[in-house]
Amino acid sequence: MMGKGKAVIVKSSIAAPLRSGKEFATLLSLIAIAIAGFLAWIGENPSSPKSSPHHFSAIRAVAVLKELLSENAPHPTGSAANAEVEKRISMQLRAIGLMPEQEPAFMCSPVGNCAQISNLLVRIPGREPGPAVLVDAHYDSVAAGPGAADNGSGVVILLEIARILKSAPMLRYPVIFLFDDGEEQALLGSQAFIEHSPYVKDVRWVVNLDARGVSGPSMMFETSTDNTGLIRLFAGAVPRPVSNSLMYDLYKKLPSDTDFTNFRAHGMQGFNLAFVGGTPLYHRAGDVPANLSAASVQHQGETALALVRALATNPPASHGKGDAVFFDIFRQIIWWPAAITPYLIAAAFVLLAVAMRRGGRAYCTASSILLGAVAQPLAACGALASGFLLLWLLMPGDMLPPRFPGHPFAYAVAFGSIGFVVSSLVIAWVSRRAGVWGFLFGNWMVWIATAVIVYIVLPGASYLFVVPAAGAAISLILLSARGLDKPYGMEIAITIPAMVATAIWLPLLRVLYEGIGKAAFPLVTFFFATLLILIFPLLWDRERFAAKTAMAMSVLATLAAIVTLFIPRYSERSPFPLNLQYVQSRDGGEPHWDFASSLHQTSIQPLFRAAPFAAQADPKLLLPWASQGYPLYAAAAPRLGLEMPRMEILGEDHKDGDLFVHARLFSPRNADKVVLLFPPQTEVVSMRIEGQMIPRIPKDYLQLFSGWQRYASTLMPGGLDVEFALNDRVSNDFYLVDESYRLPAEGKFLLNARPKNASASQDGDTTVLYQHTQLGGSIPSVMDPDRPKQP
């Protein structure tokens, strides 16, 4: 490729007329790269809230939200608070001239969650009968918090869009607004709509709204498959789009679901929107209107309204074939069909190869290109390894669930500085052995090779490497035409692709941190090293300056790491999860308070002062289904005389080695839900709750509960009807549990003792009563003692 003659190794800008001119060019290059990253970062910031009566107004929407959640109380499915929120949504719809329809149903999910849910729907007709556009947001919350962001924000966005469309000229196609219940109980409301609503046959397009946190830009992170037509519409309709195919591909591989999962599985096409910021308050008590970003509501509302109007006016003519590769940059969407990505990669390779042959022979050798090819992966892998080592030193412990330090800036400085140091060491090693042009050609060949690998493994992420490599190839082919020894050629060859890479890569850091917490810090190191090694050739002949800067960054990394050891790990805005529990068993064990935590006891010392908590060597002696994950701490609690859950056996039968049971479950204390827990050794052949057949629970879900099979349901007025069959040749024992989403009044002292930088999460604080039984031998132990056994 390079010819047989000896090449001249050039270690600095060729024939720069004046040293001062070169210094100025370097400064301009660094400024341009920094500006590109800054503009890309702020380009994804959410819009400012507006109050115009003719446009979407987050100010108006948040005011409505405060009315819906005036008590700031959780409203999980099946609770009185949930029914009150539903009633208030209906009142808001009537106030804008729409008559909501209620669609109640008893639903069970494939993972064993059941509930009586109630969906609300309104339909705004179009000039033509269909296909209709469905706009969806769930109105239930988790038990730990009131769900102002998740998903009260979606509810009030739907109300504001409904107000706008009701008063505007009629769109071409109808728009159906679905306020669904039971999303937090495994997507029950959307499944009920699909299975029971008469409107479902009209729906082709869907826009789903959700939130994972209380702030941040609205991101379109999921579409239906074969999305080229949808992405074309998204790019043309949304005024401030934030999205990329990397998120789309990654989300498909994650064990996460929203209501959009059900709609997509039913063949509906459309978009899934959420804002992801302030994640430490997600599913926590702090998800209240006061902590919700009105700017995020504005951005999500404007995006949703634009998509609804586009789909209801001029939807894609066909579903399209194949997915698109796409990303946002400077408030625009760049996209192309994924199928042409290999051709883009090939074109970049050909351009780079031609540039090497035309202009590189005089300035680089095969060995210098090889060194350039080694530098990028060496810096990236070294930075990633050093990042994980630093994470292990500063924040030891497991990665899941995500942990979010209360003061992340010092950590970001430490990890970013390490990336700077690693990349500078690599570039110093390479610069003594290779010329700048050999480095550049070798480096970009590695980017092209990486683009091929990424396209095979994760096609949606290929743009991260294809676009910067294409920018480099075009720059180098143009420069090679006029000669690489022209003034400022090196600065141009470095600056253009570095600007592109920085603008594309830098905004991803925010998403990664909000998504995975502290596990993102090594990726910060990786990102910085990858981007900085593109820029360092600007300092190719400034070894002293580079060495001094690397030393300074080493000192900065050390100081920042030391600071992290003394600042509080968590804060009220970024609390660690800590649920308190009262447990009482009918099986002879003493009642106790308990909580699980992986934190050092000094972090939760107030709880140890409030009660004599002690770590349990065998948590299963207190809670048979307890996970083997975090340490369980327990303290003696008073026996409160709460009535145990009951099972009334209506019938049983043995057939072919299986025990068939028909029973009714009761909670005399009116708990929020009843649960049947079958240990791993018990084989559940079939399960039916209120007539709903539940399939075998998936193995990956069983792993979350250490193999225990869990069936939970809200209660019906006359008790809960269950029918199940067990393999009687293996085991027939199980646990009957009822659970309330609160501590008894006697536990108030623990609520007061919980540290301010801790918060209940998910199901929150609970009161759990349980009893163990084996069918056939001890049926009376779970029956109403005042009622005789059924013959």
Principal-axes shape call: globular
What distance lies between the first and last C-alpha atoms, to the nearest angstrom? 90 Å
Helix content: 40-55%
Low-confidence stretches: 1-18, 777-791
Summarize model confidence as the mean pLDDT.
Answer: 88
What's the helix count?
21
**Main sheet?**
15 strands, mixed
Beta-strand share of residues: 15-25%
Q: Evaluate the radius of gyration.
A: 30 Å
- Given the helix and strand composition, which structural class is it? alpha+beta
Number of strands: 24
Features:
791 residues, 15-stranded mixed beta sheet, 21 helices, 24 strands, disordered N terminus
Structural account:
- Helix 10 runs parallel beside helix 14 (about 465-480).
- The strands form four sheets. The chain has a 15-stranded mixed sheet that branches.
- Helix content is about 40%, strand content about 20%.
- The longest helix has 29 residues, at about 365-395.
- It starts with 18 loop residues before the first helix and ends in a 17-residue tail after the last strand.
- By secondary structure, it is α+β, with helices and mostly antiparallel strands.
- It is built from 21 helices and 24 strands.
- Strand 3, helix 4 (about 150-165) and strand 4 form a beta-alpha-beta unit.
